[in-house]
Amino acid sequence: MLAESLKECTNLQYLNLNQNKIKTNGAMMVTELLFAHDKLLSLNLGNNKIDHDGIIGILSVLNSSNYTLEELNIENPVYKTICQSVAIHFGKMF
Description:
CATH superfamily: Ribonuclease Inhibitor
Radius of gyration: 12 Å
Oligomer: single chain
Mean pLDDT: 84
Largest sheet: 3 strands, parallel
CATH architecture: Alpha-Beta Horseshoe
Order of helices and strands: HEHEHEH
Low-confidence stretches: none
Helix content: 40-55%
């Protein structure tokens, strides 16, 4: 699986997963990747099918343990309610 292989790339600095049909389960695998990589500078997850749970998971890791990421693209997430839309909007502010 790609997520497992990426964990082995300890010098990974840029990861572009734009438009890969990644859903929330895939986003949760990305959170594991963020725990493992202290050199990742840029992560592009835009235009996937990640909902608010996946975005909150990713942002939680960034808030608690990964301080090297400088760029995060989570454009065009999936949301079903206005509350989810607001949560995603506020999440992008951090």
